[in-house]
Amino acid sequence: MAEKRAENNKSIRVAPFITILFFLVMGMIGIMTGEVGRVLEQAVQVCLSCIGIG
Amino acid sequence: MELVRKWVQTILALLVNGSWSFPYTRTIYQGPLKVVCSPGLNCYSCPAATTYCPIGSLQQLMAGIRVALENGQNFFGLYVIGTMGVLGGIFGRLICGWACPFGLIQELLHKIPSKKFNIPQKLNYIKYGFLLFFVILLPLLVVDDFGYGELWYCKYFCPAGTLEAGLPMLILQPQLGQTIGILFYNKLAIMIGFIVWSVLASRPFCRTACPLGAFYALFKNLKLVKLRLVEENCTQCKECHSVCPMGVKFNESPENAECISCLKCMDKACKFDAITLEIAGLPIGSRGKAGIRRPKQTDALI
What is the mean pLDDT of chain B? Predict the structure, then answer.
């Protein structure tokens, strides 16, 4: 029983790697569609109404 | 460990707010680093901000999705969600504890001596509502005649935006004062409310209203780096309850979505090596204090 528990303690979880890969692919698709430029375009402008002014 | 965490928080807060030329330029940083995602909540309209806020960007993309599609641009927020997802998949809410500037501000406010209060657990669910409605659905579905939506969370609620961007921009560009109205005063009241609440309770914004924290919380079972309870070492002494800034009872719910992996329970509270840090299931560290072990039933007989 103790050996089995110790073995379980050392098992590698695969789910995080699948999750990271999934979102990595998603991000890559976003880059390929040119979304990075859109994000930059928005981020360099002060959106006054967004911060409660104007 | 707590000192290390404070240093990491401070350094990362300075990195995502690393543009200090704003007193001369009187506007925000507009360089290429703004394509980098801020891991924590940090308004990109803050004059010193060098990175983009994932919550602000996601709303912008959701609000403009119809117009983008009409123009043949397939901008669905995949770059932003992908980046947030990679961060969430690796760290989860550890980011809240180690890399969020607004989290650091709340922790500093909480050090102000005063009577301290708990936050009811039920309020923790409000932040999921903010993520779903204010960040995704309302910007996507409520649009004007031209097909543009609004940034509901930023515009009507975000106290981080008021503190980091609204007030500094009013100081840098005093003429903007002529344009402020009920919207600004409403956000100012929300910000003051959270500042006072942060003095009285630990991390109230993170626990009740942060949509980014809500997003990272979705990775509670999927994240690479997490704390684990070693049940055979736990004595149920409940020492971990007293140190947790998020109100997590770690021995009762080790998979709690509120855990920000600040390591206080492992480092300060647990004397029995019942809490360890693991990466992908492999334990990499615990307090490891020599000579302390879980009392056994036979001890009572001696």
Answer: 91
How far out from the chain centre does Cα B76 lie? 23
State phi, psi for B180 to the nearest 5 degrees. -80, 150
The two beta strands, B275-279 and B225-229, are: antiparallel
Q: For residue B197, what are its two tokens? A: 């609440």
pTM (predicted TM-score): 0.91
Q: Report how far residue B128's alpha carbon sits from residue B150's, in angstroms, rounded to the nearest whole number.
A: 19
Read off φ and ψ for residue B49, nearest 5 degrees: -65, 130
pLDDT of residue B243: 94
Q: How far apart are CA B184 and CA B186, in angstroms?
A: 5
Alpha carbon distance B278, B198 (integer Å): 30
For residue A54, the chain B residue with the least C-alpha distance is B179
The span from the CA of A54 to the CA of B179, in Å, is: 5
Query: Using one digit for the tens of pLDDT, what is the confidence trace for B13-25?
Result: 999 999 888 888 8
Contact B166 A52 (CB under 8 A): yes
Query: Which of B89, B166, B283 faces A20 most closely, judged by CB atoms?
Result: B89
Q: The tokens of B140 are what?
A: 């996507």
Query: Would residue B296 be called left, alpha or beta, if left means φ above 0 and alpha means ψ between -120 and 50 degrees?
Result: beta
Residue with tokens 């509502």, as numbered in its chain: B129
Asked if B82 and A30 come within 8 Å (Cβ–Cβ), the reply is yes
Are A5 and B232 an interchain contact pair (Cβ–Cβ within 8 Å)? yes
Residue A9: per-residue pLDDT: 56
CA distance B109 to chain A (A): 22
Residues of B in contact with A27 (CB under 8 A): 78-79, 81-83, 85-86
Phi-psi region of B286 (alpha: psi -120 to 50; beta: other; left: phi over 0): beta
pLDDT of residue B229: 93
Closest Cα partner for B153 from B142, B161, B141, B163? B161
C-alpha–C-alpha distance, residues B218 and B85, integer Å: 10
The answer to whether the CB atoms of B73 and A47 lie below 8 A apart is no
Contact between A33 and B75 (Cβ < 8 Å) = yes
Q: Hey, how many other C-beta atoms are within 10 angstroms of the C-beta on A14?
A: 10
- Predicted complex ipTM: 0.88
